[in-house]
Amino acid sequence: MKSSNALTACVDIFISPSKAFNGLKDARGWSWLAFTLIAAALVISTYVFYSHADTQFILEEQIAAASVDATIGEQKMIRQSMEQSIDNQVWFAIGGGIFGLIIINALLAGYYLLVSKQDPDAEYGYGAWYGFGFWAMMPMVISSLGIIALVFTATTNELSVRLFSYASINQLLLGLELGHPFYTMMESLNIFSIWGIALAAIGLKCWTNFSLNKAILFAALPSVVIYVIWTIIALL
Amino acid sequence: MKKAIIIILAIAAFVTLIVSKQITGSKDAPEVNIALVEQGSIADSIMASGNLVFNTQVQLRSEVTGRVDKVFVEEGQSVQQGDILMRLDTTAFESEVTRNQAVLRASEIEIKHSKTRLVNIERQLKRQKELYDVGLAGQEVYENLQNARDLAKIDIEARVEAYNQAKASLSIAEDRLSKSVFRAPMSGLLASVNIKEGETVIAGTTNIIGSDLMLVADPSAILAELRVDETDIAGIKLNQHADIYAAAYPNQPFTGKVINIGTSAKNQTGSQGLSFRVKVLLDKTDRQLYAGMSCRAEIATSIAVDGLKLPIEAVQKEDDKYFVWRLNDDNTVTKAYVEVGISSDIEQAITKGLEKGQRIVIGPARPVSKLNENDLVKVKQPTAKDTQ
To answer: Could you tell me if the ipTM is greater than 0.85?
Structure first.
């Protein structure tokens, strides 16, 4: 079974991902839609957040976060530099987000290409894996919709940038405070990235002859490596 | 079917997540500080900084170059007008006078000599004329003598001028001799003595300013020389009252009056701004002040007598209009547009829009900036008058 067109694939990727990946095998052009959706969701959610949030509040919050160990002179310098850039922060966030998306997916595509060599039957080029990567990131669209919903239903404009990681393991389960060694790591690990790993595993299984376990291993490996290194650094 | 249930559960979980994360603002009424509209006078003032100087002071410099032979005074000593302060080595100046006196005497002698010669020629001329008249002498001899007499007269005139010249030179030498002795130009205090025996003083010329020797000052009157920024200068008038805070007495101001306002702006060292020099004469005081001390001043430029006033932070601006947040009896706030008068650094006069005794929100700035009409607020620190 496979999706019949790009639009149905966009729905299938969430409810029956294998259909979407099977369809994608023959229609690489669909990936443009996935990229467009992810990028649009990112741009819109970021813009909505910054246009609703009180920039002064964000500024204060960021200064407080950046100047935990700073002297008064350093705090002053941090404040000056941040005040200059606060108005352009939305554009940095959007530009950085899209740029990061493209770069990270490029690395992942290389990684997928490499692991696919384990299967002699898999004959997908770099471009195919690049498109594959975007489909595995589709949960980001749901994540962005959540951000937009949170911003629009908020009753105050004192929005914290922590809102972007509303589905993180830290905010859902752990509740670590800023300054804790694992705080940043747990804020970055969220259910949508786990969902993305699951999608990648399903996708790998559809596109190659890997067993389910092997597919899960290869899909999770980049994140596992990163988080293990991060944990070691955090513990040092 | 099973899949549909999972999907529905996932959507429900997502919605629950969003709802549970719902961001709510603080519902509590913001805490604000208030102040009462009061009646009183406001003095608008201009701040300036500067230095203290003596009202009358004379800087002694040398007109002649020479080595210091003797200094008779010390710094801080009181002197009377005419007292000898110091003396240069006078040997060279005295020799110069002696030489000029000799030149003058030589000139006198030469005049005498010329006059004697003239008398002699005139006598010869008279004799020759008598001989010539009777035909015993030649015309040529007679005319030569006439000529010699005229030359002798001219020679005397030249000698007289040389004498005058020598006399003038003597005066100059005597003047230089007298200038090698320094006397106090006025009675007062020696605020500084910058010269020691054995040092050489240099006379001032067009391009070189002469050596600073001493500063004689009248300590009874002290001025504050202030640098007033060009943007403030329009408000400064003669006789305005000023409070002067010297660094040595930071909390006890000296009082004074503006006695002089500079007419041209000067570049302030260390900044790009232009400033005017304003002099404030300090009233008599028992406290010791020294010239050169730094000071800052508050010059009262205008005074609003007996009007309504508020702390300046209470007044906010919306486009071209000013307003304040008035606290109602039920602790809600109402925006009240006001007209403002003069302001000082801390107070603002209100000419229209408020009445005495009304309670006005003055801060903190952040919650105040978010207030809306009829918002409920909590009063943080009731003023003493509020609790009475």
So the answer is: no
